[in-house]
Amino acid sequence: MDDNARYQVLRNDEDQYSLWPADLEVPEGWHAVGKEGTKDECSAYVDEVWTDMRPRSLRERMDNAAS
Hints:
Blueprint: E1 7-12, E2 17-21, E3 30-37, H1 39-49, H2 56-66
Antiparallel strand pairs: 1-2, 1-3
């Protein structure tokens, strides 16, 4: 990753996050979340919002098993 490049934050259907170059088309299966900036800015955003690293489907299964 280039520290001087612009990035955007992506999220997939499993609520997993990734940084992606802002000038490239978003890959299939991923969606822009509206955060764009430097690598450090985007990484800080991901650290703030992605507090549970488990994929959404696993969280749901575990929640259902606990009920």
